[in-house]
Amino acid sequence: MRPGTANWLPARLTVGPMLLAFRILGLDPRRAWRILRRDGRKHPSPNSGIPESLMSGGLGIRLGGTNTYDGVPSRRPHFGVPVLPKRREHIREALCVLHWTTLLYVAMLGFVCPVASGLDSSPRMIDGPDLSADPPPITGK
Q1: Contact 32, 19 (CB under 8 A)
Q2: What does the pLDDT read at residue 127?
Q3: Helix (H, G, I), strand (E, B), or coil: what is residue 14?
């Protein structure tokens, strides 16, 4: 399996819940969508660019640039437009987006998985004796 193949579908299924999370939190889902369309493919990972570009657009900040991993600098493309200067509050907002996105994603899967598998999620009675019929007569000896 090629690297990133297992995350291809989940990365894309995250888009809807994340946009809805922005709306719930009073952030800008339209800007997030525009930045995703513009910047989502810039990331070296075909999957990481999706949530990173959405987050930058939704929060109105610029993400990416030079990161350091084990003391080694790594240049990454920039995502988003710096509408706002980065603030400490953006971390809290990003965590709220993460929590709402997770909740909405799990709820979506709870609905989609049974429907996609053809299962009806309504409760069912286990087949048993027909209790609505008249009982057989009791005979005594």
Answers
A1: yes
A2: 64
A3: coil
d(C-alpha 110, C-alpha 129), whole Å: 32
Q: Is 56 left (phi over 0), alpha (psi -120 to 50) or beta?
A: alpha
Model-level pTM?
Answer: 0.75
Contact assessment for residue 66 and residue 74, using Cβ atoms and an 8 Å cutoff = yes
DSSP-assigned beta bridge partners for residue 69:
72
Measure the CA dihedral 66/45/54/80, to 10°: 40
**Strand spans (E) along 18-99:** 63-69, 72-79
Averages of pLDDT over each 10 residues, the chain, 141 residues: 78 95 97 96 89 96 90 91 91 97 93 74 60 70 61
Q: How many residues comprise the chain?
A: 141
The neighbouring-strand residues paired with 78 are: 64
Count CA within 13 A, CB hemisphere, residue 18.
25
**What pLDDT is attached to residue 111?**
84
